[in-house]
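Weekly puzzle thread! Below is a chain. First person to post its structure in token form gets bragging rights.
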Amino acid sequence: MLQEILAQYSVPESIQERFYSNLNANLYSDTQRDIRHHLSLNGVNFEGREIPISILPTFLNQNEVDRVGVLGGAIRNTLQKILDRFLEESRSSNIHKPLHQFFEPYKKWWKLIENEKRSIDPIQLMRFDTIRTDLCAWKILETNTACPGGTIHCAKIRDAWLMTRLGHSLLKNQSHVDYEIDSKSSFVLHLVKLAQNKSQNKNPNIAVCSYRGSYLNELQSLQNEHKRLVSLGVLSGGNLLVDDIRNIHCDGGVAYIQGKPVSIIYNKIDPLMIDPSGSQAAEIQGWLNVVESEQTDFLNSLGSMYLSEAKRVLALLSDPMWWEYLELDSETQSALQELVPYTRVLPENKTSATTEKFLYDLVLNNQERFVLKADSLTRGAGVYIGKNLNNLEWETAISNTLSTHGVVQSRVETPSRVNVRLSDCTESSLQPFKDFFGIDLFYFGDRFVGPVSRSHSNLVFNVGNGGKESPTLVLQSEKL
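Winning reply:
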């Protein structure tokens, strides 16, 4: 039945055929120039570097996207249930605490997670990294519930592509759907709405905070967009402040940044850099005080930053043994079965458990079937694709993955397409190349707000490691 349902979802070949038939070196150059000019005017870059853009968009079907968005919403709710159950275990006197055992590598941060006071749901921003196989099946490769990028730049890139001559000609007589993520103001407005509800103030202050210069992508763009919305009268006031968590002062339970009270703090940080009991604790004391404050909320909870962000959470989601403990309904179980590939925490070679020993040997001797991933690294770091490695490299990858508490995941066949670039030999001709691509599904709170896409000539596609942003066009289903 599922395959019959999925078989109806497709993107018309005509629009992709028009891309290839209309494109030449001059149009390619003009398109790239126009996109770069537009992005430059809007201050869009990746931490000071020009963002690589694929001029071949990712085309999707509206019915298919909306269906997967609903299924992903059920999985988001499951992630929140995991975080809630973890806190329930913390309050329980029962010595058997399965989730605490499962997330033992994050013991250093358990007290922070347990002591956080919140008035909003734990996951207010997230992104599923997925791929859509050639058989129209979708698979979630990673959850991103800490500080996923793409909240504003993807919309600006899509706008820039749509304004090109190529964009106008390709979409002639073809209707496409706009989602919240396609608006450059949507995430800022989401932050403002949360802050208004928290503070009961029409013009609240919001902060987006980094730590020690890491993860600065999009921060300035978000601040500029907030200022633009105030200048247009869409927002009547308030500030979006960009700063470092070391500069947070907490007084009477209220966080202050740059002398202004703040209702919501979006932590754009590497959580593993936080040492709550080490020598750095003094420099982030204000931030640590906010954790236990009832006056200021973090956008995403500390549980979402450490636990549901970890790759091992997919091992939990894909294992039916956990579903009973989490009391998941049949619809949620069906969503997990369809979207989450087999994932397990990689066991040690010296394990005495029969099942773990079997899994280790299976991974060691069948590398073409698996991918290894470090548990909490980002931007493609610590990812090893078995079919691309020789035996010695695979053994080294297993050792490295064990040292980072990582996971093994069934390799899902990544879709590819023929993309083009200017020839290395001459700028007057185009050169085709194989381009792998993935689709990212965004959620603001409990709302599915749409897809964006990235592509790469490498199987590990990430803009931080050399990949490209791909403008994403969801085509109206009735037009197919």
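Puzzle host: Confirmed. Bonus trivia for everyone else. Residues 62-91 form the longest helix (30 residues).
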